Amino acid sequence: MTESLLRFKLIRKYYEQDGTIGKLxxxxxxxxxxxxxxPKIFQGIENAKDNSKTFINESCCIPEGVYTTKRTYSSTFRxxxxxxxxxxGREGIRIHAANVIDQLLGCIAPATxxxxxxxxxxxxxxxxxxxxxxxxxxxxxxxxxxxVLEITS
Length: 153
What we know:
It is built from one helix and twelve strands, in the order E-E-E-E-E-E-E-E-E-E-E-H-E. With 153 residues, the chain is mainly β. The chain has an eight-stranded mixed sheet with strand order 8-7-6-12-1-2-3-9, covered by helices on one side. Strands 4-5 form a two-stranded antiparallel sheet. Strands 10-11 form a two-stranded antiparallel sheet.
């Protein structure tokens, strides 16, 4: 089934202790936006799992792989967003607007640029997703309701 779906790629360029930075490319390889995710390694463990009481991995970025991604209603955000489906051991992984990794619980934040050392809400963040809502609106306008998201480095 996934062979006939539109395929987008999230190519991660930088793994930092403060977060993961990537570029989202369309099916023709043209960059659509940057992406900010949680770090790959948390407390020394790559793609660490949270305790068994949560369905969401809040500590690390999504493992590399190929995922079916669907536009569905999120009761958390009270609107439709893209759900990254089939992430092993995780549920509720969304592509949503966020400026800093404290706002991401294992999800992906699109951005027009990624800035370093930005003061936001009385705290300096090492990585900042600029104009995330604008970048989200851009990809929501061009993506179909279901597509394949390939995450690589």
